[in-house]
Design brief:
The complex is a heterodimer of chains A (369) and B (172). Chain A is mainly alpha-helical and 369 residues long. Chain A is built from 12 helices and 6 strands. By secondary structure, chain B is mainly α. In chain B, helix 1 packs antiparallel against helix 2 and helix 2 runs antiparallel to helix 3. Classes of the chains: A mainly alpha (369), B mainly alpha (172).
Chain lengths: 369, 172
């Protein structure tokens, strides 16, 4: 049955709330994970004091951020100084809306009790009637240009960083903001081109269809994920470009402490600083989700057990794969030093971009042939 | 009035408001940000017309790439507030009515030629496949000619921007 508008709106609101809650919790705990893992890599303990294994540390951090004094330096350009962290967070959280976490689940048939008032646009007038079954996708909205939407929203994310740097009226912030925007524009090209190979193979922009095209196996063992299906180079380019896009080590030049104090967020304190922090980790999670969907088969994975377990396994596979990406991010942070800025630029333009174009041409020839 | 029409008018209002604000603001960065709002609202209009692909491209290319470069240049040059000048009398006497007459004329011609019929959502090409069919099959030659034109423009920009080579034999 097609979804009536009322059910659609209710389902969307519920899904948005759940996804936002899960995402924000994941953001908080990836900070904890980073501190813990980097700590162990450097032969330290990381957070241990608040709760068992320091698990309540994110809550303590959040409270601290909320109660810190919120300073606004006197010479900033106030409207944009306030708007920049909001922009960063909004664009970082928006792109999660089109990411599918699993297959559609079926709702109903359900008998509606008498008291529910949502009778408009329904195939019945008052309660007591059976509605459904409706198929509800396991994502906030299912759009057929999902991938383009993510690219569009992430390309807007640069405004938060750039405007924060400019409006702070501080040379270090300005340099950080300029670096960030130059870096993000440069690596966006390689990032976009690295995804075109996947698009050619699957022939659609819909993330759901891209994942469904990766079901099945080669030779009964190797899963038919795009990374094993000719897109290994594409994945490599995506990974490099994604690190630069999210301003993470080894490409975290916009906030290089040794040169720029703290880069674009030097003048920010309290919750405004925390918003940049949240945006960075939310972007990391989005990048991990996208890599999982495009190169690692999304929610595809071995299924076994009773029907309930079978229904819950795909989102779990998805989360496990995203977790691996987050761990990789942290691992790289604990391992690699920071690049120099000219190295960063020449790596992006002279190595990644030609490689991405070569990968694109090779994929196109292989698919056409 | 349907929900769809209300949204369409709202995005239209944001578009026009942003465009007016673009002219009214004195600081270049505020003008650039208003232009971004106009681009975003236009993308919303495309989305409401069923052209999802064009909407996404509008955001990625205009709001996400071109306007970032605008903002980047404004930040790099540290362009300050413009000085306020007295508007010229010619602009007020001739310009404002002239613009009004011109826009009414354009609207009238367009309405005369195509009328205000209803078009169902999805009746016009909006999906990537249909647009690709138009661009790379039906109108391939104009498309390629345009791309060569853009290539020439890029090469011209590179030539203009590059520093002249130092005279031979002189090492600094």
């Amino acid at each position: 049955m097609p979804l009536p508008l009322s059910i659609y709106i209710i389902a969307s609101v519920i899904k948005s709330v759940i996804v936002l809650f899960v995402l924000l919790t994941a953001v908080a705990y990836s900070v904890w994970l980073e501190r813990k893992v980097v700590g162990h890599m450097q032969n330290r303990w990381g957070p241990t004091r608040v709760g068992p294994f320091g698990l309540l540390q994110p809550a303590a951090d959040g409270l601290k951020f909320l109660f810190k004094e919120d300073l606004t330096p006197p010479h900033v350009y106030k409207p944009l100084f306030l708007a920049a962290p909001m922009m960063a967070v909004i664009f970082a959280l928006t792109s999660i809306a089109v990411i599918p976490f699993g297959n559609s689940f079926t709702f109903g048939p359900v008998t509606v009790p008498q008291f529910l008032p949502f009778h408009f646009e329904m195939p019945f007038h008052w309660g007591g009637t059976v509605i459904g079954p409706y198929s509800i996708p396991f994502q906030v909205t299912d759009v057929n240009i999902g991938l383009l939407l993510i690219l569009g929203v992430t390309s807007l994310g640069v405004y938060g960083v750039a405007l924060a740097g400019w409006s702070s009226n501080n040379k270090y912030s300005l340099l950080g903001g300029l670096r960030a925007s130059a870096q993000m524009i440069s690596y966006e090209i390689a990032l976009g081109l690295s995804l075109v190979g996947v698009l050619i193979q699957s022939g659609t922009f819909s993330l759901r269809d891209i994942v469904n095209a990766q079901g099945g196996r080669f030779l009964y063992v190797i899963p038919r994920w795009n990374i094993f299906h000719g897109q290994f180079v594409g994945f490599f380019i995506y990974l490099m470009a994604a690190y630069a896009e999210t301003n993470r080590i080894p490409f975290d030049l916009p906030e290089a402490e040794t040169e720029l104090v703290a880069g674009y967020h030097t003048e920010y304190s309290s919750m405004k600083f925390a918003m940049f922090f949240m945006a960075e980790y939310a972007n990391m999670i989005t990048v991990g989700c996208l890599a999982t969907l495009l190169f690692f088969g999304g929610w595809n994975g071995p299924l076994a057990g009773p029907p309930l377990v079978r229904a819950l396994l795909p989102p779990l596979w998805f989360c496990a794969k995203v977790f691996c990406f987050l761990f990789l991010y942290i691992w790289v942070r604990g391992t690699l030093p920071r690049f120099r800025y000219d190295q960063l630029m020449s790596f992006g333009w002279k190595f990644l971009l030609p490689l991405a174009i070569a990968n694109l041409v090779a994929t196109a020839i292989a698919v056409a042939w | 009035m349907s929900f769809h029409l209300i949204l369409f008018l709202a995005f239209g209002a944001v578009c026009v408001g942003g465009a007016v604000n673009l002219l009214a603001q004195r600081h270049p960065i505020n003008s650039a940000l208003s232009l971004i709002a106009v681009m975003g609202a236009l993308a919303g209009e495309y989305l409401l017309l069923g052209a999802e692909f064009v909407a996404a491209v509008q955001v990625i290319v205009y709001a996400g790439a071109i306007m970032v470069l605008f903002v980047f240049v404004i930040m790099l040059l540290n362009a300050g507030e413009e000085e306020e000048t007295k508007g010229s009398r010619v602009a007020i006497v001739l310009g404002v009515p002239g613009i009004l007459i011109a826009s009414v004329l354009v609207a009238w011609v367009v309405l005369r030629r195509s009328g205000t019929g209803d078009v169902a959502l999805g009746a016009l090409p909006g999906y990537p496949r249909e647009i690709a069919q138009l661009l790379f099959h039906d109108f391939l030659l104009p498309f390629e000619v345009t791309s060569i034109l853009i290539l020439i423009a890029i090469m011209g920009a590179v030539v203009l921007a590059s520093k002249p080579e130092p005279p031979a034999g002189k090492v600094e």
